[in-house]
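Chain particulars:
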Amino acid sequence: MIFRQLFEPVSSTYTYLLGCPDTGQAILIDPVLPTWQRDLAELSRLSLKLVYTLDTHIHADHITAARKLRDEAQSRIAHPAIDALPCADLTLEEGTPLMVGSLRIDPLFTPGHTDGHHAYRFGDRVFTGDALLIEACGRTDFQNGDAPTLYRSVHDKLFTLPDETLVYPAHDYEGRFITSIAQEKQRNPRLGGDRPLAEFVEIMDNLKLAYPKFIDYAVPGNRECGQCPAGVPDDLMQYCEQIGESRQG
């Protein structure tokens, strides 16, 4: 398996490249619009063909590169079925793996950050999107987020994976790259240890994070698989490609 963890510094987003060495086919998880050329250059350098893009959820802090990559590389857009995106070429559901060459991706329905959020398990690692971050988790105060639902998604689904499972999140704001299920079960200050649901809900209710400055444009744009919507003010047009100051957890 060929694997790369790629970072977009403005929105602090990780994009993950997984490639099959036998077939030369590849996927990108959570690609970001400003870095589509970087991603295609990396695929070319590795002699890989992009077959699918996968987003973990409808993002509020950046525009996905899914549509742009489909236009440029003839890849297909795979997205959780629950979001019912007309622009998706393939819908994903828990219980139905996605096969790309020798790669098997298992979707895991992990709502709570958004109501359609999915993580993707691949062998000994899991790509957790915004549901589980490194010693944190995604916020639950927009896009039908719900703290009790996120608590159950993490405890009943992600924390039941083997302790040695490597956790790759969609964001990190502190320069960290990777964690594990065992570490998050022990050290996550919001969800780890024996913290009960009521305490987690209280923490999430008091995060006092600013309203994401681009959410009103990012969400409709991402419901179109990565198209800047009409009506973006001139002073925000740059955020169609560069989105900052919009922490997700």
